[in-house]
Amino acid sequence: MKQRSVAIVGAAETTTMGKVPGMSQIQLHADCALNAMADCGLTAKDIDGVATAVHQPTEVANYLGITPKWVDGTSVGGCSFMIHVRHAAAAIEAGLCNTVLITHGESGRSGVGRPDRAGPALFETQFELPYGVSRPPTKFTIPVMRFLKEYGLTEEHLANVAVVQREWAAMHSRATFRDPITVDDVLNSKMIAYPFRLLMCCLVSDGGGALILTKADRAKDFPTKPVYILGTGESTESPVISQMADFTSSRAFRVAGKSAFESSGIKHSDVDHLMLYDAFAHLPLYGLEDLGFVGRGEAAHFIAEGHTRPGGKLPVNTNGGGLSYMHSGMYGMFALQESMRQMRGISPAQVPDAKISVCHGVGGMFAASGTIVLTTEGP
Amino acid sequence: MANDGRPLPTPTPETQHYWDGAKQGELRLQTCNSCNHTYFPPRPFCPECSSRDVKVVKATGKGRLFSYIINHLPTPGFKPPFAVAVVELEEGPRMMSNILECEQTPEALQLDMPLEVTFVKESDDITLPQFKPAKS
Question: Which among A325, A359, B92, B127 could disulfide-bond with A339, CB atoms 3.0 to 4.6 Å apart, if both were Cys?
Answer without folding.
Answer: A359
